[in-house]
Design a protein that fits this description.
DctP_fam; about 350 residues; 13 strands; about 20% strand; TRAP_DctP_sf; D-Maltodextrin-Binding Protein, domain 2; six-stranded mixed beta sheet; alpha/beta; signal; four-stranded mixed beta sheet; 2 domains; TRAP transporter substrate-binding protein DctP
């Protein structure tokens, strides 16, 4: 695996101090009630189309709590490097994180189940996966609130392939949570800063990338080089809305219930929104000449099965005592049979 670093990001002390003292601050809302203002950070910038629905969730929470809980989304890696975000949430430097389990799955391996889930978010709440994931997040002093994005990751390529074996030895821009799958497929993963993806594609440092859906690559200019998409999304999205557990405990039971219900309703709206956006983006991509590659039915089945089993096998090695339960909670067929 190749790791490329453009420079070391340091957090100015003044920034950390200002974030800390803004975190979880209580202010007067009226003569009768108090408002808690919570500071939030995301792992990708607000300008990215994948974050389109975050503001909706914030508005829904504030409305559901009649303004008693306010969320101040202060930025992304511009205020806190991505590799410091989970620690900042755990310690209470920030209150809310719009992140993904890849940032902390080494500490909580069971959260990989979110990426392997065959269910919609509301089904996960009905069958017990949500509750299980909430329990697991205690390890990082976090309350798991829900999902903020849907859509499976896809592989984008500079040159077309005809069969699965053509992926072998390709240099693909990646992230740590894809390493096991890529190793199984013979792909050489290359870890770069997000800001360096465009240049890496243009200069041939990488021959493609893996990305969590169709939204984003065109806006980021990556389609200048990556003109082909392997049209077989694998896994589920692994993004999570997390709140510092201590800050969650500072919210009244009434408002906790209101936030949970608001998030349940939001997830349905969010799924519908991104389904529509992905359909529109597919057409936009075709208009600029992006080609979608379909493997044979046999190779598609091998690819998707491999993507699942590589991760389940890893969990068998790490947390064998939890795998049977996690498989049951992520499997729609078994969940329906129980009902």
């Amino acid at each position: 695996m190749v790791v490329i670093k453009s420079f070391l990001l340091m957090i100015p002390v003044a920034v950390i101090i200002s974030i800390f003292f803004a975190s979880g601050e209580a202010t007067s809302h009226s003569n009768e009630e108090e408002v808690v203002e919570y500071t939030a950070v995301s792992f990708i910038p607000e300008s990215d189309p994948m974050t389109d629905m975050i503001d909706n969730w914030i508005e829904d929470v504030e409305s559901a709590t009649d303004g008693r809980v306010e969320i101040n989304w202060i930025g992304s890696t511009d205020v806190l490097p991505v590799n410091a975000q989970v620690e900042a949430l755990e310690s209470g430097v920030i209150d809310v994180l719009f992140g993904h389990v890849g940032l902390y799955e080494t500490r909580i391996p069971a959260t990989t189940a979110l990426a392997l889930s065959n269910l919609d978010p509301w089904e996960e709440r009905e069958n017990g996966l949500y509750e299980k994931m909430d329990e697991e997040h205690d390890e990082i002093n976090a309350k798991y609130i829900g999902r903020w994005l849907v859509g499976g990751p896809q592989i984008w390529l500079n040159e077309p392939i005809e069969e699965l074996n053509d992926l072998e030895e390709l240099q693909i821009r990646s992230a740590p949570n894809y390493t096991r799958l890529f190793s199984e497929l013979g792909i050489s993963p290359v870890i770069t800063d997000p800001a360096d993806v465009y240049t890496s594609l243009q200069t041939g440092v990488v021959e493609g990338l893996v990305y969590g859906g169709l939204l984003g690559p065109r806006e980021n200019g990556w389609t200048d080089s990556a003109n082909y998409v392997l049209d077989h999304p694998f896994w589920n999205q692994n993004t999570t809305i997390l709140m510092n557990e201590d800050k969650w405990g500072g919210i009244t039971t009434e408002d906790q219930k209101a936030i949970n219900q608001a998030t349940t309703d939001f997830e349905k709206e969010m799924v519908n929104y991104f389904d529509e956006q992905n359909s529109e983006e597919r057409e936009n991509l075709k208009e600029i000449g992006i080609q979608f590659i379909d493997l044979s039915a046999e190779e598609e089945e091998i690819f998707l099965r491999t993507a699942q089993e590589v991760e389940w096998n890893n969990l068998e090695n790490i947390i064998p005592q939890k795998v049977d339960e996690l498989r049951m909670l992520t499997d729609e067929v078994q969940e329906n049979e129980e009902n």
